[in-house]
Amino acid sequence: MKLIVISTPHFFDNEAHCINQLFLNGLQTLHIRKPQSTQHQIQQLIQNINPIYYPYIALHQHHNIHTNYNVKTLHYTEQTRQATTETEFKNLVNKGICISTSIHSIESYYKLPSYFNYAFFSSLFNSTSKINTTASINFDELQQIKKSNIKLIGLGGINDQNMTLLKPYPLDGFAVLGFVWNEVENCVSNYLKLQAICKP
């Protein structure tokens, strides 16, 4: 199963070093999500990450810099997805860019155009990184979901305990934030715990 790590919304000391260590230990995809960031701040972070990992980075903000760093994935929130035209999305796909998005209901999943590669589906559990973000998914409905070619990535409060409970559900992977970053000094070991659970 696919395991994605989402960055903290804030910057912290040695962040790029931690990211490099995660990649060294098998991280396949990192989503850089920093809503209040400037373009310069994002560029500074990326420039301190080993360039061999650039194709495995996804940008949530400042999409325009993706060509400077060989970034292959762009993420769109529900709001930015609705503000982007079909032509713009198709042009990105034609250029070899993977596009992902966020959804919060099964109905939204069924309505997604086929050019999306995967979707974050939240919140599965109460968030450990966002205050007042609580579980909102009906697991009975999730069990009956009709899958499409768009991969469904579970998000929200996932840790090494509840991830095991999610494996029987029709999810293609998980995106995590708090469990990895709430203890920065343990980010690699916590990531490896999740990685072990995701293995077949």
Description:
The chain is of the alpha/beta class. It has helices spanning 15-24, 39-47, 78-82, 86-94, 106-111, 139-143, 162-166, 178-181, 187-198, and strands at residues 2-6, 29-32, 57-59, 73-76, 98-103, 118-121, 151-155, 173-176. An eight-stranded parallel β-barrel has the order 1-2-3-4-5-6-7-8. Strand 6 (118-121), helix 6 (139-143) and strand 7 (151-155) form a beta-alpha-beta unit. The longest helix is centred in the last third of the chain and has 12 residues, at 187-198. The protein is globular, with a radius of gyration of 16 Å. The N and C termini lie close together (7 Å). The mean pLDDT is 93.
Give the tags.
200 residues; alpha/beta; eight-stranded parallel beta barrel; 9 helices; 18% strand; globular
In round numbers, the mean pLDDT is 93
Give start-end ranges of low-pLDDT stretches.
none
Radius of gyration: 16 Å
Widest sheet: strand ordering: 1-2-3-4-5-6-7-8
β-strand amount: 15-25%
Q: Which overall shape is indicated by the principal axes computed on the Cα atoms?
A: globular
The N- and C-terminal alpha carbons lie at a distance of 7 Å
Helix residue percentage: 25-40%
